[in-house]
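__Record contents__

***
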Amino acid sequence: MEQVSKALQNKRLLLLGSTPNIAGMVKTAQAMGIYVLVTDNKALKDAPAKLIADEYADISLADIDAVADYIREKQIDGVLTGFSDSYLTYYRAICEKAGLPCYGDAHTFDIATDKMCFKQACVGAGVGTIPGTNAYAYEEAMAFAKKNGYPLMLKPADNSGSRGVIKCECEDELKNAYEYALSFSPTKNVICERFMDCDGIGVSYQLIDGEAYLSSTCDRVNYCAAGDGSSITGDLLYPSKYTERYIREMDSAVKTMLRQNGFRHGMVSLQSFVDEKGFYMCEMCYRPSGGHHYILIDDQNGIDSLKLLIEFAVTGKVAAYDPAKETPFFHEMCAMTHIIGKPGEIVAVAEGYDALAAKEGVIDVVQDICPDTVIGKDGTTAQVVATVWFKGADLEALRSRANSFPAVLKIENAEGQSLIKTRYFTQTRAAE
């Protein structure tokens, strides 16, 4: 890695976006010896990444020409973004305008950001998916419901972070559920799917020059909103108890899907349901994701996927990668947990993140919310106030640590009331 670091010394990277997650990318790139600039149109007080960048600008990502001019003015070597599908269109257009490396193209980003495009790509490669359909009109949703029955999940085809996802239990709820999901879709396209009442897993792949390497697997436990059934990831447990079965039944087909559709560089993460009959892919992510699986891969395998992506951004290649080190069979049990806030509350105090990061077994912590912001809707990623990655000797050690984390944080409103929603780490480890 010393040789790679020397090659990257004083390279200049522009990050698109200024969220807490982007701030983590700033720190990683700076540690690699890279000069980091950040831009978007957020005010400095709402832009943690700008506060720690070497330079920042207030240029909107939508102003492609202005960002390209800024790139030329500042002699920037590469551009990168992450953590939001909405940034990817701007990212690709900016890279194209500035003549800089882009790890994806229009086709691969369409598959990653449009759930129906993803479903079609999976079907074309023999990858199992959830039974479902597009519903551009309410009548199409009604027809699917009559044929397949209830409950159903309705979701916008082109949004992320569980925004607009809603469970529908019966015909009386269908109209409101459809309109709710539709309101989150820029293209006015709703996907209706069978509700999957079974285990969920996540997998990730590292892409190097068109070859995909399975890098992690995890069991997923969702946090579900009480009202509409919308959900986000609550906890992840690595490696998944289904790892060997996934490799037998799905790994080859998923690699075929990625290869057929031109996925060549970067990191890919996918979510699937699993029951006794098979695996059912439901969505994918072609960018650094909120799950930050690369943190645990680095801790366990010594491969930092984020650093590889940053290297590609400023050089157009990855100089050194050892696929023999890539394995989903981590040598320790690892986990990620989201600490959830009470929706609709205004945060006055957000403290304790450094103390949380110092706890035994904690690998990394991300502060997902700042003072003077409103905690988002129940069952969406905007509700998360902290994300913690950690490890332990066994499942009981992980559970004990996870359940101790909320007490370390001080997330309060102006009246001094805690805004952390009580939730317990409920992962189990049954035999496959």
Summary: The chain has 15 helices and 18 strands. The mean pLDDT is 94. The domain at 199-412 is CATH 3.30.470.20 (D-amino Acid Aminotransferase; Chain A, domain 1). The chain has three domains: 2-102, 131-194, 199-412.
